[in-house]
Amino acid sequence: MWGKTGIRNVSRPAAVAAALCSALFGATLALPIAPAASAATTYWSFDNAKRGCLESTASGTVFEGACDSGNVQQDWYWTGSMNSQGRRMLASRVSGRCLATDIKSGLNQANAVWTSFTCDADARGQRWRFDYNGIDTYGQFDSGYGTALRTSPGLPESVYSDEFTTTVALDYYYWSTSLSG
């Protein structure tokens, strides 16, 4: 950087042109200025009690994989305002896309989970709440549909949402969380 002009990311010729324009014509020239720094984002990772960590690809696929503190595909952050049920959107660090589900298979059936290209605060399937169960270090994800996020006993890497059922052990619905990144 050359000299202390108070203007960042501007070449010397552009700064000189702006100063001349202002002095000669009483006008100012719009110049690009670096955006102000924002508060640091807090990233979280979620580790399933029976399987691995919640993970997302840039293309929207959600799965569980072996936990790795250096894997940014396992980093998530809460975004948007909290609604009256205490739910917010959960976005993937690698894509900025929001965790989503539906109930197309039925409330008590395994429903798809993905990250949506558009984060929509009004979409029930994109609103999540993470609640600790009060007994140990695990909690559960509750969607806007009242379904819970879980891994699969029979299909490693698979992530679904459904109502708690007696056919799937509760540990598949339980997640621990930690700060990441």
UniProtKB/TrEMBL annotation:
| Signal sequence annotation | 1-39
Concerning SUPFAM superfamilies, the annotation shows:
Ricin B-like lectins
Name under which the protein is recorded: Ricin B-type lectin domain-containing protein
Q: Which UniProt keywords apply?
A: Signal
What species is this protein from?
A: Actinacidiphila cocklensis
